[in-house]
């Protein structure tokens, strides 16, 4: 049985926080909201608790987890060296959606790092997440709280759908505001390298520490490049439906999608279209969901995973979607969208 508790972020009930912390201290699993997506937490230092996370998610054991801490001062307990670069980034972006990769100390079990010598650490800003981590007095391993391969959860009901019966407790704290997972930055080597784009962009990082590189494997669809973040190599964030993305001038994309919808609906296929506020009135399809204002990258990012899940609930067979601007968090949105689409992107000229 999974305990489900609703917590008001503006009036946090400490009894529920203590209940969650007790479960974590006893080696159990607690799903909770963070500012990026919901996470499924366990005690990082307990091998069996960590194993339960991999079981619950059906996650490949070579895909390492992020350790969540309540304060910067905790990091030195788990890593061998904190560079000036890492210090600056923690001062500027923590708490928040930035995960840093360090060389790990032995106290961090190998099953949380997928056998790697490095460990990923993040200090979330979400008040409920922080209260739970603080009350547990433990470093909390927390991957996104979805079944492996599915879109990450941005609402408790997504977690309930995926993990009911598989975790001890789900804390419902409303929407995850950002809606995409944290930026993962490797600071263990000489050049800071983005392994997963997120809400903290390359430009934001460069303002603080100078030149930052991006793992070439995440910019290209070349299958011979293996991403440095093991999780980035899987088809991921994927709805059940086939998803196809169209890039080009907006009016051309809309009319191309309309033609395809027409053809497929005549074959009795159930089709969904992901539209924007600007285009939603121009589609001719039975199932249209607007993801938001195309000039508001934050809004689009925060709605992406929810919209993909909504189409799954409707049992749509094919989803057509416009490509979005890569401005700001748009780089991360397009990264997740293309992974969800298995890189099916078509240029309309
Ligand atoms: O926003 C987030 O980061 C969310 C919330 C819950 O905090 N968590 C999250 O965790 O997205 P997860 O497990 O779904 O994704 C962790 C990513 C994976 O791509 C994994 O391969 C990478 O981080 N990662 C973890 N440790 C790593 C390491 N030592 N070296 C390289 N990549 C690592
Ligand atoms: Mg994940």
Quickly list its features.
single chain; 349 residues; alpha/beta; 10 helices; binds threonylcarbamoyladenylate; binds magnesium ion; ATP-binding
Describe this entry's structure for a reader.
A hairpin with a 6-residue loop joins strand 9 and strand 10 (193-196). The termini are far apart. It is built from ten helices and 16 strands. It has helices at residues 14-25, 47-57, 84-93, 127-136, 156-163, 202-209, 216-219, 250-266, 297-313, 330-340, and strands at 3-6, 30-32, 39-43, 66-68, 98-103, 118-122, 140-141, 169-172, 183-186, 193-196, 213-214, 242-248, 271-275, 287-290, 318-322, 345-348. The longest helix is centred in the C-terminal third of the chain and has 17 residues, at 250-266. The protein is α/β, with parallel strands linked by helices. Residues 34, 36-37, 39, 63-66, 97, 99, 101, 113, 116, 118-120, 122, 124, 142-144, 181-182, 184, 195-196, 228-232 line the site of threonylcarbamoyladenylate. It catalyses: L-threonine + hydrogencarbonate + ATP = L-threonylcarbamoyladenylate + diphosphate + H2O.
Give a quick rundown of the structure.
Helices cover 31% and strands 19% of the residues. With 349 residues, it is α/β, with parallel strands linked by helices.
State the major sheet. 11 strands, mixed
Overall pLDDT level: 96
Unreliable spans are none
End-to-end span in angstroms?
53 Å
Small ligands present: threonylcarbamoyladenylate, magnesium ion
Shape: globular
Rg over CA atoms, rounded to whole Å, is 20 Å
Roughly how much helix do the residues carry, as a percent range? 25-40%
- Discrete helix count: 10
**What string gives the helices and strands in order?**
EHEEHEHEEHEHEEEHEHEHEEHEHE
Tell me the strand order in the biggest sheet.
1-8-2-3-7-4-6-5-9-10-11
Structural class: alpha/beta
Number of strands: 16
Give the percentage of residues in beta strands: 15-25%
């Amino acid at each position: 049985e999974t305990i489900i508790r609703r917590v008001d972020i503006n009036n946090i009930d400490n009894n529920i926080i203590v209940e969650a912390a007790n479960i974590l201290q006893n080696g159990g699993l607690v799903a909770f909201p963070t500012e990026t997506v919901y996470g499924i937490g366990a005690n990082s230092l307990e091998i069996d608790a960590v194993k339960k996370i991999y079981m619950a998610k059906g996650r490949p054991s070579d895909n390492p987890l992020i350790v969540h801490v309540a304060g910067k001062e905790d990091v030195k307990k788990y890593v061998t060296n904190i560079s000036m670069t890492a210090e600056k980034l923690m001062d500027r972006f923590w708490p928040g959606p930035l995960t840093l990769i360090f060389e790990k100390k032995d106290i961090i079990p190998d099953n949380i790092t997928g056998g790697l010598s490095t460990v990923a650490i993040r200090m979330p800003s979400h008040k409920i997440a922080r209260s739970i981590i603080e009350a547990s007095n433990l470093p909390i391993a927390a991957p996104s709280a979805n079944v492996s391969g599915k879109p990450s959860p941005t609402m408790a009901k997504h977690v309930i759908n995926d993990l009911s019966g598989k975790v001890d407790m789900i804390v419902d704290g409303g929407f995850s505001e950002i809606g995409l997972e944290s930026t993962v930055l490797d600071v263990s080597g000489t050049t800071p390298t983005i392994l997963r784009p997120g809400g903290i962009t390359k430009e934001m990082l460069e303002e603080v520490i100078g030149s930052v590189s991006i793992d070439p494997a995440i910019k290209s669809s070349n299958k011979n490049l293996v991403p440095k973040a093991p999780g980035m190599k899987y088809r991921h964030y994927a709805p059940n439906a086939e998803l196809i993305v169209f890039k080009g001038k907006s009016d051309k994309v809309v009319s191309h999608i309309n033609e395809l919808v027409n053809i497929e609906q005549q074959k009795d296929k159930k089709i969904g279209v992901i539209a924007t506020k600007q285009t939603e009135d121009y589609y001719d399809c039975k199932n249209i969901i607007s993801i938001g204002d195309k000039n508001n990258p934050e809004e689009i990012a925060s709605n992406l995973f929810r919209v993909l899940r909504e189409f799954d609930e409707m049992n749509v067979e094919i989803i057509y979607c416009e490509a979005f601007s890569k401005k700001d968090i748009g780089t991360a949105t397009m990264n997740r969208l293309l992974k969800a689409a298995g890189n099916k992107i078509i240029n309309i000229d």
